[in-house]
Backbone:
């Protein structure tokens, strides 16, 4: 084929340059309606503030080029809409399209957070109903919808604890965190002004309650627990753990990332949890969008209610809703405006679609995980044998004997049409494979996944090289991460010569 | 890679070579191997004071960051500027060209407690056994 | 249920394969007494039509049919339908964080383009892949300055958005940072003398916003010089990004914290938006948030990966530059698409229209007896006026004419009771500006 002719089929799969590389002066992709007021000359009025020269390097392309560019880019992505993401603790479930539709309604997408509250009752009702549903699910007394993501929810939760303890005279110094915890937990504790002390897991992967007894002193503000743990195993002694903490005046924070195993089946509030965050972009189906936006509402017991971030959503006479900006003991705001309202809308749409039937989703999630576990036990090493809930953690111990590790297996899984599971986490399992199918996977998808994993195990034994050099079928091969970190190139710059190949 | 006999070694995998009241400090071949490809090194400036047992900098790979702990106390005279542009030298020549800092010792107690080459090689051999246990 | 791809028979098959008699066996790890016996008391299940009906009913209870003159950090700008056509593609909407680079090149290249656009707009060298919003970006910029300077005091202009200052206070309380406020002068700009007086060698950052909360444009150079002379970093917050189509960017800033809502994101009652931090290359290792970096694969193709991840929580844990994990990727993508659609000329034209409309609106309002400008200073698309009577009362009357009036400033700025912040953008029709002026005139003519 004449290499000079670039056929369309090559473009969509192969090369697509940066939008800046398609730019040419004078092309436009967007036109504004004509100005209906006199044109005011910015030069005199703005003087030195005026940006005389245009924005250097800013793209100049046409509408079709923009559309093609990003459409082509999108074809390089894997997505839930294409297939399973067995990522542990990410809960990559179906993102219902009706959620997108309602979030975009005129009258919801268009509202300004500072408009009069009497013209915002629709928005406030949505927030209030979501609060009620989440309180019912978690068994808690009060909620804030302000945090923009799980990590921000964690911070809010710890700040609530700090404020509560401070009010009693001593905010205390330490937060206890299990060695199996997600990285945001210790990072957050430090931002909240606490020292992190690790708690080891015992031989079954659960929190070592006897060790904990010794570690909980009056210097400890809280324990951050994930339940089920990042091993996918329910922390059976959580009520006892709560008691140990409460006896010393400390509180129990629960990372709600794994709520998909609990919704409709049990309630963290009943188990003794004092405060927790939820990840709406996990359990409640709001889309990951390549890394956000999410939302991390925080649910709490009554004792923490006075410290909630302002403004507070209250019900007034006649059912009127209002946002009240003043609460003397509030920790303040963690974010401007009301929170990620558009994400809250999507989460409520999900909850309303299920109603009390959300329990079925939880059951299917646990069913899928156990089905996969049953079929892969023996094929991959299972380091902890207690019952799995919505996710299961294997290790690469068997495959390591042939020099194949969890990263290699994950990359080979891509060749079978799946996104990798979570590799090398939790840290307490060396060479971990953390698998969470969610309820959105059919039996057929689960069987395909199981077959792929079995096949890779066979390859690891008979032909390890093919696993170690995977993936083989993607648009790009393994990328040089070392080079990217040594000499970071983090933006496009105009080429001084025409040397830059688009690959 | 051989472990020079004139160096002393710490449990955190730093080496130190003493010449009078001056010393050169680096990380060992074992340490660079554990880290993987080094992408960045953060070192103190000349004039900075370092304390025995405390962290004085970091060595970064793609997947991890390691603190570097001072095997002795002193004042930094020179930091290896080549490592700014070619941090990968730590992987290829950790005991030689990829020295990290040169210091004037203010306190040399404790250096004799550090391991010699033979003891260090035994130490990391044990670690190897632990890892595969 | 339509989201669950299982038939009852399949559930039975799977249970049998597991060796469990019922699904309840799989929950044996949950102590019996904590298992719910009754269904949750929540509404539903709703069919798709009922879901739509519920939200349509709520949408009808808001501000439809009113014209708004509100800005104050959230702006109505034109948005192209092309943006949604792209971000609604399943490959973007439903994809995960691009940790597995080989199957996420679409997201990673788009982030790289976003980072580039943000640098071009702000005149900085490097930008991250997004923060939650402008308020948290500003806070994280301050924390970044603290790490870089190892100093504990922060001087924030009072003319920075009140809610941004509130968020900073919440975070600062626990990190030992002392936040002090610098007043504004009679013409609405940062009081440079007060700043000079407050600066000592213990200040990590000086934070200003431009255009500031009153819409007034600040002069960066002298403020930056003052800050730098004391060894402090100069942090600039930008709430209205469209202004950069017309105004000189803060090239003197060490760190810029910008809100990207103006770039194609719906107001959506306050979120989700997209903040960004932009700074100098030499500070990149202290920058929070994700970064997409260019690299090559084993066969020499250009590709992109998340890089410098050792700054982040999943590796550095306690020592991370921030706890941020999920950010605002899809919103940043929307901003990227929007800005490439607008392009160089489109953004400039949009900015100029904002400027012209605001000049027109001010002129119309100044015709009304009793209305004065609060600050005599250059502005972009927002300005502050002083009314001869209570803003609250006036706004109540404007509402009757289906106009959402300007923001009353008396609560965040007690010395500015009777002052109000007016915003007009390219979306405010001339007829509505004139109608607003007319309604305001009538409201002021009413006997008290």
Residues:
């Amino acid at each position: 084929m004449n290499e000079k002719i670039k056929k369309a089929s090559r473009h969509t799969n192969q090369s697509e340059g940066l939008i800046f590389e398609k730019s040419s002066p004078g092309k436009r992709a967007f036109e504004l309606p004509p100005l209906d007021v006199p044109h005011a000359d910015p030069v005199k009025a703005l003087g030195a503030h005026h940006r005389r020269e245009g924005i250097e390097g800013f793209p100049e392309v046409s509408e079709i080029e923009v559309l093609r560019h990003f459409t082509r880019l999108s074809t390089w992505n894997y997505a839930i809409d294409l297939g399973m993401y067995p990522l542990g603790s990410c809960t990559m479930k179906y993102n219902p399209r009706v959620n997108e539709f309602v979030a975009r309604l005129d009258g919801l997408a268009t509202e300004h957070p500072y408009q009069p509250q009497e013209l915002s009752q629709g928005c406030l009702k949505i927030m209030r109903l979501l609060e009620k549903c989440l309180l019912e699910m978690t068994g808690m007394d009060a909620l804030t919808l302000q945090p923009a993501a799980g990590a921000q929810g964690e911070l809010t939760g710890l700040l609530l604890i700090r404020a509560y303890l401070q009010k009693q005279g001593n905010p205390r110094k330490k937060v206890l965190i299990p060695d199996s915890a997600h990285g945001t937990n210790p990072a957050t504790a430090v931002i909240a002004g606490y020292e992190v002390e690790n708690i080891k897991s015992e031989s079954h992967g659960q929190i070592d309650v006897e060790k904990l007894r010794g570690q909980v002193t009056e210097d400890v503000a809280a324990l951050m627990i994930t339940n089920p743990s990042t091993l996918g195993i329910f922390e059976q002694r959580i009520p006892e753990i709560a008691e140990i903490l409460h006896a010393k005046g400390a509180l129990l924070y629960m990372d709600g990332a794994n709520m998909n195993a609990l919704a409709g089946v049990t309630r963290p509030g009943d188990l003794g949890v004092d405060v927790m965050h939820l990840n709406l972009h996990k359990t409640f189906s709001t889309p990951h969008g390549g890394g956000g936006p999410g939302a991390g509402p925080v649910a709490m017991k009554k004792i923490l209610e006075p410290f909630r971030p302002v403004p507070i959503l209250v019900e007034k006479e006649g059912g009127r809703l209002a946002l009240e900006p003043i609460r003397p003991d509030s920790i303040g705001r963690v974010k401007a405006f009301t929170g990620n309202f558009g994400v809250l809308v999507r989460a409520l749409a999900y909850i309303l679609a299920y109603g009390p039937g959300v329990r079925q989703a939880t059951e299917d999630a646990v069913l899928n995980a156990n089905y996969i576990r049953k079929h892969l036990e023996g094929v991959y090493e299972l380091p902890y044998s207690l019952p799995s809930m919505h996710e299961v953690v294997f290790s690469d111990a068997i495959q390591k004997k042939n020099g194949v590790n969890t990263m290699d297996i994950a990359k080979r899984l891509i060749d079978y049409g799946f996104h990798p599971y979570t590799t090398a986490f939790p840290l307490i399992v060396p060479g971990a494979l953390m698998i969470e199918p969610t309820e959105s996977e059919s039996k057929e998808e689960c069987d395909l996944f199981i077959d792929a994993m079995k096949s890779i195990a066979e390859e690891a034994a008979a032909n390890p090289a093919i696993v170690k050099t995977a993936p083989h079928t993607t648009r790009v091969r393994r990328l040089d991460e070392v080079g990217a970190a040594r000499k970071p190139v983090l933006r496009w710059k105009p080429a001084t010569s025409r040397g830059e190949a688009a690959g | 890679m051989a472990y020079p006999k004139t160096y002393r070694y710490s449990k955190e995998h730093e080496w130190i070579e003493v010449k009078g009241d001056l010393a050169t400090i680096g990380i060992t071949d074992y340490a660079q191997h554990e880290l993987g490809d080094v992408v960045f090194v953060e070192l103190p400036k000349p004039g900075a004071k370092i304390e025995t047992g405390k962290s004085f900098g970091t060595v970064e790979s793609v997947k991890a960051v390691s603190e570097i702990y001072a095997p002795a106390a002193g004042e930094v005279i020179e930091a290896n500027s080549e490592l700014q542009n070619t941090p990968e030298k730590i992987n290829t020549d950790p005991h030689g060209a990829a020295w990290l800092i040169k210091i004037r010792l203010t306190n040399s107690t404790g250096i004799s407690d550090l391991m010699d080459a033979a003891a260090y090689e035994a130490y990391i051999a044990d670690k190897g056994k632990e890892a595969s246990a | 249920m339509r989201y669950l791809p299982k038939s009852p028979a399949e559930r039975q098959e799977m249970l049998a394969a597991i060796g469990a008699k019922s699904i309840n066996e799989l929950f044996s790890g949950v102590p019996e007494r904590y298992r719910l016996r009754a269904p949750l008391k929540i509404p539903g299940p709703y069919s798709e039509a009922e879901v739509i009906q519920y939200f349509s009913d709520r949408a009808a209870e808001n501000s439809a049919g009113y014209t708004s003159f509100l800005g104050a950090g959230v702006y109505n700008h034109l948005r192209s339908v092309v943006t949604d056509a792209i971000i609604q593609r399943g490959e973007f909407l439903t994809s995960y964080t691009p940790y597995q680079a080989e199957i996420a090149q679409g997201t990673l290249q788009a982030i790289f383009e976003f980072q580039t656009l943000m640098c071009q707009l702000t005149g900085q060298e490097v930008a991250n892949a997004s923060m939650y919003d402008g308020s948290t970006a500003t806070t994280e910029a301050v924390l970044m300055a603290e790490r870089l300077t190892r100093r504990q005091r922060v001087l924030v202009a009072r003319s920075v958005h009140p809610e941004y200052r509130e968020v900073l206070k919440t975070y600062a309380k626990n990190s030992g940072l002392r936040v002090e406020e610098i007043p504004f002068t009679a013409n609405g700009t940062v009081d440079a003398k007060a700043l000079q007086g407050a600066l000592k060698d213990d200040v990590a950052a000086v934070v200003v916003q431009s255009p500031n909360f009153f819409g007034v444009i600040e002069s960066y150079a002298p403020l930056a010089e003052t800050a730098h002379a004391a060894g402090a970093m100069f942090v600039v917050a930008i709430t209205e990004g469209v202004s950069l189509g017309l105004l000189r960017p803060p090239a003197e800033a060490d760190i810029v914290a910008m809100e990207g809502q103006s770039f194609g994101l719906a107001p959506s009652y306050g979120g989700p938006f997209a903040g960004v931090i932009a700074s100098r290359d030499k500070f990149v290792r202290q920058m929070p948030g994700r970064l997409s970096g260019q690299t090559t694969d084993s066969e020499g193709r250009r590709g992109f990966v998340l890089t410098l991840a050792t700054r982040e929580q999943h590796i550095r844990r306690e020592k991370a530059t921030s706890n941020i994990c999920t950010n605002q990727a899809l919103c940043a993508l929307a901003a990227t698409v929007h800005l490439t659609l607008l392009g160089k000329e489109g953004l400039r034209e949009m900015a100029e229209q904002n400027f012209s409309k605001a000049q027109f609106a001010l002129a119309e309002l100044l015709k009304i007896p009793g209305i004065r400008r609060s600050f005599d200073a250059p502005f972009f698309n927002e300005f502050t006026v002083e009314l001869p009577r209570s803003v609250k009362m006036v706004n109540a009357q404007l509402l009757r004419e289906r106009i959402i009036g300007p923001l009353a400033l008396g609560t965040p700025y007690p010395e500015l009771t009777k002052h109000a912040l007016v915003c007009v953008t390219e979306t405010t029709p001339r007829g509505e500006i004139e109608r607003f002026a007319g309604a305001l005139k009538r409201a002021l003519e009413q006997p008290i």
Observations:
- The interface with chain B takes residues 481-482, 485-486 of chain A (CB under 8 Å).
